[in-house]
Amino acid sequence: MAKRKSSDRVQGLLVMLPWLFEREVVSIDEMAATFGLDRETLLSDLNLSTFCGTPPYTPDELVEIFIEDDEVWIREPRIFTRPLRLTVEEAFTLKAVGEAALAVMGTGTSSALASALAKLPDLADDAPVVVRQPRDPKLAELEDCAASHEILTIDYYTPLTDKSTSRDIVPMRLWVDGEHWYCDALDFLSGEHRLFRLDRMKSMKRTGRYAEASALPAIPDEPGFNWSADSEVVTLHLKPAARWVAERYPTLSVKPLSAGSVEVKLHVANEAWLGRLLVRAGNDAKVVAPSKYATLAGRTARQIRARYA
Amino acid sequence: MPQKPARRVWQSSPVSAKKATKKTAKKVAKKAAPKKAVKPKGAVKKAAKKPVAKKPAAKKSAAKKPAKKTDKPMEQAERLLNLLALLSHDSNYRTLEEIHFATNMYGDRSLFERDKAILREMGVPIDSKVLGGSQAGVSSYRIDRREMELANIDFTADERRALQLALAAVHVDSMWAERARMKLNLPEAKPTVAQVNLPASSKLLPALAEAATRMVRVQFDYAGGSRRSLQPYGLLSRGGYWYVVGNDLDRKAIRSFRVDRIVGDVKLTNDSFVRPDNFDVEAAVATDAEMLGDANGSVAHVLVSAKLAPSVVRDFGENCVVEKREDAVVVAVPCANRSAFRSWALGLVAGAEVLSPPEVRQDIIDWLDKMAGA
Q: Which pTM value belongs to this model?
């Protein structure tokens, strides 16, 4: 295990000790799981805390923790009975999380959330932090189907092929990244997990048929675009006028070149996606690698130009 | 020559491990701990092991052997906890000399300064006071426990549940949400069906939020090399970006700034201001559609394929459609900001054609010709 920062250990202990005190006795495994530590790390941190106390540092003045039969318990402490107050960072993040969650919660929960946030001290209360999420009218119905594993028939538009296909899916998770809503789903057309964008679902019909929970594929723990290890990476040189590309899309690396230009590496969803990006960036962006994309910008431009004949 | 801090002497705590129940053992522990004051200063002896990690009775003797070498420097985390405990357990101010006398941790002043800085970074409020009289000029320190500790917050069951759900529904790319969850003693809830990805790990965001809450002016360097002086009214997250909105004192106007384009740190000043009542943070940041230009300014007509029409209508509203054709619509879209308009139109790739005005259409053609020839 990598060496942890002392401040992380201390902050962890200041959360763990009051928690332990509240419970008095817990199993080591439960405690380790609760705080996301492995057993060994937890025990070494607890051990550390028993060297801490106040003058005259007699046992009575030290933190006393006992471990026996896989249980850990604490004698009523005189110090470290409460966690540290929220830092500016923690309070801000709670506020932002609360604001963001309002977009995905029912009204009952959101009013409880609002009153909870109002009780938080300092920043979290009245900080003018606004988090906007796009809305999508299909959301409630998709959530409903996800909860019951109901099969839906959707008409889905794929920009890559510029075609709509009808397919049956079982929605599993819905998520928003600030710009678009996505749906992790079981796709019967491919028989696998697929990611769909809600604004590309042209129509949606409930079938009244349901999938077995056991038939659902595994989806990534956290929502997001999970690039597989072998997905394609493109290297671009961007002049200052095309720097927005590096800000707009997730990059693997950004390296400064001369005169404000940068070299970026990023994942490519598909050729059409990259072609669109290149034609918007114009001659301020150049594909450095792989070489098969060297002519993509020109090809895409000619394809659009054909409309203006 | 910095002096290595010696471990304090620990009174061994002869807790009987042969306890039938925890309750008895607890009592034993308390009774067995003699209140013998041990003078810590200079006394370097074996560090007797405290009863943690104690094995069952059979292994008691093994557990008793000194676990740590006494000449090993005390771990920093242990020092931090002891400093925290000493300064917060009563209301006395202590000088460094007194702190060192009590703990034997700080023969080296720079070590103390470093630890103090780490505690402050963790959010621990350390008060300092410069003494007078015979100790004139000497600094002394204490921590107000009420200021240091999280106050008890009286959440209702519904409120706790709502916070748990919010924390389970929103993924933030920093440790801060997780830390806050633990401090508030909120168990992790099962992931919700609908979730949010919210990038919010920039250190600048909490600083700007703090300034906006306390209503103090900030200074920062912005992309392009300008130094800005801003009264921050609020923060907005939209479309994957964070913006800070406020009164730009140099431009004498309401301006918004992309937080990811701020270079270096944000400096909070002591100049306070008053935020206008009902200030609408969101309205102050132009949307992508608004970036194209004023709806009352120049307008372009664009032929958009039926498949792409819904997303255009979503951005510009129903009223943008001026003509419906078979398999396509003509939309009227602002185009005063030529480069933003071009980027938008080309984003529709071959699904759109700019019809008018002629100079805007020609601009697109020129752009494509330049690329096609390259």
A: 0.78
